[in-house]
Design a protein that fits this description.
Chains: A mainly alpha (322), B alpha/beta (479), C mainly alpha (316)
Oligomer: heterotrimer
Largest sheet of chain B: 6 strands, mixed
Structural class of chain A: mainly alpha
Structural class of chain B: alpha/beta
Largest interface: A-C, 64 and 59 residues
Order of helices and strands of chain A: HHHHHHHEEHHHHHHHH
Chain lengths: 322, 479, 316
């Protein structure tokens, strides 16, 4: 029994990493035929950088979805935090500490509000986070028409520098992913997130305070969005009121999570799948760029890939004896 | 270790338990038996802190206790294993066992300790077919039950309540359940064992308590009673007075099965005739509900013959003039947030046909007051909900109507009304098949009783057969 | 209908508040102009209602609206004679998109949230792929008249709204609506009563697609051709439906209430404009009011969507 389950790559994350390898191989072949080289240093760095912001948001989204919720407010929160960061930094190295602290505080607060509206006021997560998204959007649009604030050179290291072939932003993403993996697999909160998302009633009967778990998952999700906001601010050198929505981080992060095999209903999946999902999307992007395929094709392919992946997961679940 | 005295409980003014005493000693397997509605499940829920008793006292090790929440009962060393497991299918065995109380070392969950403790408990139970790291959803039901038992042991439960633990198990799995309970006994754990299967009661229990109509009849060491006596103690009541008179005779054959079967049923030969009520008896898991669903087309027969035709879907079943009043009316019978009117018209609307104009008359016939017609079904009592389900099918004027536990969760008055109506429908020429686990009801209503066992017909009994005879066939032994 | 009362009360309050600032608002001309503006969203909400009441989501309507407008402009390209064929094509395209959404959701058992999210990506990508990034071409006068013109004093869009609204109400009273509602409330009980659950859900998605097509025709005329014309409309439509007391997860709520929810949302926008709340802050107020209105309890939502078989099997 042990051996059997181990030997077969049942875990969607494993399947996805295999798909990722396959895609890289296929891409390499395609680009080679085209007379180029697929995985150059440049393109790898590009993939990592492209993935980092979405990757960090998607990690947070994973936590919310695993807890049986979801967060539609991340895109606007990213815009807001990029502005908070750049405005407080105002080009001065000395303000970086304060700015980071402020961003973390603001995003934690937003997560707290999301969580409390969902658990306390018992508003469906979809509507609750959509409402909070509108609130943030209003504030941001009211105060800003365009980029504002300034990020000092030293902070832009986060966005552009790299250590050897590895960009700092990718390291940040990896750090967040490892932290989330650690949280989910090694802490009580992580266990409880799975329990609440898996079956709220079973969790309650086991003495778990389910409301608190949902609120914490939302706080962490929002903090991840805040970190992504910091990263994007350092890339742009300023804060921008549309940076979050232009990236489509709300729906894309949900898509990446689900592509990674995490169930939208909660309770199953994990960080590894999300990482693979984000990377898969980024490799696709890179491939299309190198083949100079029209950038809009990528949206189409993306949509199809996500739906097909989830359909495959559904089929696999069906085929198994319960 | 557990002693309950004079326990009484009422729900909405209906007395469910009165003056019940129960004492369980360490290392004892104490069976609680009784008909459906005798109060077993209420008593069990009181033990486990789901309900608080209205009167009476509970003591554990001589200290009085009162539980406000199941978690408090758990802290006192009482664990319950429900028929429906409280497990997270996506998580591992160890994670389920320690759910909500994961051991922590330096702020982190101590997986190793968790898995070790789980492995140790599995080992003590002599279970080596799976390990602490296996994901629960991949385990067969019997092993999931073991996970529940390990969960109980891991909180150092000294009393484990098991509610029909064998209901979901196959024959060979029951044997390992026996071994498991033997090991619990060796550890000094007390077991309260609730079961309809008398063979298990006699195989396992040290003592047995018989409940009837909310009171305790007796408590006896198992050696001092025979199965026959036990059945008489459980039922011992005058039948016949409750039920409408049987009809004169059966008419034409409406439906007949020859050698019909599917993944749960084999070699079913059965005829349903106009004007006749055929009762279907059998233990849980014997294939009773599956038979009704197969005839109806919801889980179709795959082999054998059915005349007039073998339906492959619900719609084909409906087109053949078959209706099914399902066992679980909330999950399968009604759209609870829709009005009575919309529910009773649902089949007619979905499939077409049916006599919509007759609905008013039918509602009157079942005495569902017209004022309730626009009310959401969920606000109705169980009896009225069942009447709504019935009218839903009567609107289609079916030739064959299948009832799966038609009076479960229905109060006495509505029960009698439903019985009368079933007989009236039969007298009007409908062919009726009724599944019931309440033997008095089954015997009182049926013109013929077909007993199922393990997906086959174990035998057919004439009207007025004794409960002992039905039980013997259902359990498959000569008691 | 009792569940519609809170939204009607909110609507009445908003209309009163608007009338206080702008007395012309309640005159026929002013009110018709308001309805004309509201018509696309109200129609979208009616379409979304069918999907939500069956227990699903349709996130693709916003990008479908954009796609339809852009396609129309490109195909017509100012050519009057192309108007009617293109109109027919748009309606067919809307129905087709709904069909695909519905079939993938029910037959492949992918949660509708994901299916329609994928459709959103596919549509927006495909349209811009085809048009090369920026919308090109122009709509014909004959096309724009639906969004701009009117029959005498009554705008076409209001007439279309009334007709479609009446049709939606009729449909919900008919057998289809009743079985759809039952399927959203209790899929299993509906199936055991002979309801073809997959088929009614697919039909619901097609109605949503149809509503998006009509909304696109009105918006194209009213607001003109742009790549942003449908942006965020899926969220507005879902919000409007929920504001009308329709439960996410399915099985309850009425079409008129959902449409009233959309009118309320539009009235809210109007009021915020009138009271000089800047264009941006209106979102904030909108967000607060939506959360407050839904939390206020007239509308009790389950905290989690009722688990669907499709969700449970979403991934392994």
């Amino acid at each position: 029994m042990h051996l059997l389950t181990r030997a077969r790559p049942r875990d969607p994350a494993q399947v996805l990493f295999l798909a990722l390898l396959g895609l890289v191989a296929a891409g390499w072949a395609l680009v080679a035929l085209d007379g180029g080289q697929f995985l150059t240093l440049e393109s790898v760095v590009g993939i990592q950088q492209r993935s980092a912001a979405l990757g960090i948001v998607a990690i947070g989204q994973t936590l919310a979805i695993l807890a049986g919720s979801l967060d539609l407010s991340v895109a606007y929160l990213i815009s807001l935090t990029s502005l908070v960061a750049a405005e407080i930094m105002a080009g001065q190295d000395g303000n970086i500490g304060q700015a980071v602290a402020a961003v973390l505080a603001v995003s934690a607060l937003v997560g707290l509000v999301n969580g409390l509206v969902i658990t306390g006021l018992r508003v469906h997560a979809f509507i609750a986070t959509l409402g909070v998204a509108l609130i943030i959007k209003g504030v941001v649009d009211h105060l800003y028409d365009g980029p504002a604030g300034a990020v000092p050179e030293s902070f832009q290291v986060l966005g552009y520098s790299r250590i050897g072939p590895v960009p700092v932003s990718a390291l940040l993403w990896a750090g967040v992913a490892v932290a989330a993996w650690f949280l989910l697999s090694r802490t009580r909160l992580g266990y409880r997130i799975y329990a609440v998302g898996g079956n709220e009633e079973v969790a309650r009967l086991s003495g778990i305070r389910t409301g608190r778990v949902i609120v914490l998952a939302h706080v962490l999700c929002s903090v991840c969005a805040g970190v992504a906001g910091l990263l994007l601010a350092s890339r742009l050198g300023a804060g921008a009121p549309t940076v979050g929505t232009d990236g489509g981080y709300d729906l894309e992060s949900i898509a990446a999570v689900v592509l990674g095999g995490t169930a939208l209903a909660g309770g199953k999946g994990g960080v590894a799948g999300t990482v693979a999902g984000v990377l898969l999307l980024a490799v696709l992007d890179t491939l299309f760029n190198q083949l100079e395929v029209n950038s809009f094709v990528k949206d189409v392919v993306r949509g199809v890939v996500i739906v097909v992946a989830v359909a495959v997961y559904a089929r696999r679940t069906q085929g198994r004896p319960a | 270790m557990l002693s309950m005295r004079g326990i009484g409980k009422s729900f909405l003014g209906v007395r469910v338990l009165s003056g019940v005493d129960l004492s369980v000693t360490a290392g004892e397997v104490h069976a609680v038996v009784g008909e459906n509605g005798a109060g077993k499940s209420t008593l069990m829920k009181i033990i486990c802190g789901v309900h608080a008793p209205d009167e009476g006292a509970i003591e554990i090790d001589g200290r009085p206790v009162s539980f406000g929440h199941p978690i408090e009962a758990r802290r006192s060393g009482i664990a319950i294993i429900y028929q429906e497991f409280n497990l997270l299918p996506e998580r591992t065995v160890a994670e389920n066992v320690f759910l909500g109380r994961e051991p922590v070392r330096r702020g982190l969950v101590d997986r190793a300790a968790m898995e070790e403790a789980t492995a140790r408990l599995l080992d003590e139970l002599g279970e080596n077919s799976f390990g602490p790291r296996d994901v629960v959803k991949r385990l067969p039901v019997a092993q999931q039950q073991i996970v529940e038992i390990v969960k109980a042991l891991s909180v150092n439960a000294r009393l484990v309540v098991m509610d029909e633990p064998s209901a979901a198990l196959a024959e060979h799995e029951v044997e390992s359940l026996y071994r498991l309970i033997g090991r619990l006994r060796e550890r000094g754990v007390a077991v309260v064992y609730i079961s309809h299967r008398l063979r298990e009661v006699f195989d396992l229990a040290d003592r047995v308590t018989v409940l009837k109509d909310g009171s305790r009849v007796t408590t006896l060491p198992i050696g001092e009673i025979t199965p026959g006596e036990l059945i008489r103690l459980m039922v011992g009541r005058d039948l016949g007075t409750y039920f409408p008179p049987r009809s004169a005779g059966a008419g034409e054959v409406r439906l007949s099965l020859r050698g019909a079967g599917n993944h749960r049923l084999r070699d079913i030969d059965l005829e349903l005739r106009a004007g006749e009520i055929v009762g279907i008896a059998g233990l849980q898991g014997s294939g009773r509900s599956e038979l009704a669903r197969a005839i109806f087309g919801a889980e179709p027969f795959t082999t054998g013959e059915m005349i007039p035709a073998r339906p492959r879907s619900v719609r084909e079943g409906v087109a053949l003039g078959i209706g099914l009043v399902t066992e679980d009316r909330k999950a399968e019978g009604l759209a609870l947030r829709q009005s009575v009117r919309d529910n009773v018209l649902l089949v007619a609307r979905a499939v077409g046909g049916g006599n919509r104009a007759a609905v008013g008359g039918l509602l009157e016939r079942v005495r569902l007051s017209p004022a309730r017609r626009d009310q959401e079904v969920r606000y109705l009592s169980g009896g009225n909900q069942q009447k709504a389900v019935l009218v839903k099918w009567l609107t289609m004027a079916p030739r064959v109507l299948l009832f799966d536990e038609p009076t479960r969760g229905v109060d006495v008055g509505a029960k009698a009304a439903i019985h009368d109506l079933m007989r009236e429908l039969a007298n009007d020429g409908m062919a009726i098949m009724m599944i019931s686990s309440e033997l008095p009801e089954l015997i009182g209503m049926s013109d013929r009783i077909v007993v199922l066992r393990d997906g086959r017909i174990a035998g057919t009994l004439p009207a007025g057969a004794s409960e002992e005879a039905v039980m013997r066939l259902a359990a498959g032994e000569a008691a | 209908m009792r569940r519609a009362l809170p939204v009607l009360a909110v609507l009445a309050a908003l209309l009163t508040a608007i009338a206080l600032v702008n007395p012309h608002f309640l005159e026929p001309a002013g009110f018709l102009a308001f309805l004309k503006r509201a018509a696309p969203l109200v129609i979208l909400a009616a379409g979304q209602y069918f999907v939500i009441v069956s227990g699903e989501f349709d996130l693709s309507v916003g990008s479908l609206v954009t796609a339809e407008v852009v396609i129309a402009a490109r195909l017509i390209d100012g050519d009057e004679s192309a108007t009617w064929p293109v109109l027919a094509l748009l309606i067919a395209a809307g129905l087709l998109v709904g069909l695909v959404n519905g079939v993938v959701t029910t037959k492949m058992r992918v949660p509708s949230f994901i299916v329609t999210l994928g459709m959103l990506l596919v549509l927006s990508g495909a349209v811009f792929l085809w048009t090369g990034g920026a919308p090109r071409g122009a709509l014909s006068e004959g096309f724009r008249v639906f969004g701009r013109g009117g029959l005498g004093p009554v705008p076409w869009s209001v007439l279309i709204l009334v007709v479609l609204g009446a049709a939606a109400i009729r449909l919900m009273r008919a057998d289809f609506g009743k079985t759809l509602m039952a399927a959203g409330d209790n899929e299993r009980a509906a199936a055991l009563s002979g309801v073809r659950v997959d088929r009614v859900k697919i039909f619901a998605f097609m109605l949503s697609g149809l509503a998006a097509a009509v909304a696109a025709i009105l918006l194209g005329g009213f607001a003109g051709v742009s790549a942003q014309v449908g942006q965020g409309l899926e969220f507005s439509a879902i919000t409007a439906v929920v504001l009308g007391g329709v439960t996410l997860g399915g099985g309850r709520g009425s079409v008129p209430a959902a449409m009233a929810g959309a009118v309320t949302l539009e009235a809210l926008f109007t009021l915020l404009n009138l009271y000089g709340v800047s264009g941006a802050l209106e979102f904030t107020v909108q967000g607060v009011i939506i959360i407050a209105a839904i939390a206020a309890g007239a509308v009790r939502l389950p905290r989690k969507p009722t688990p669907r078989t499709g969700d449970a099997h979403a991934a392994s």
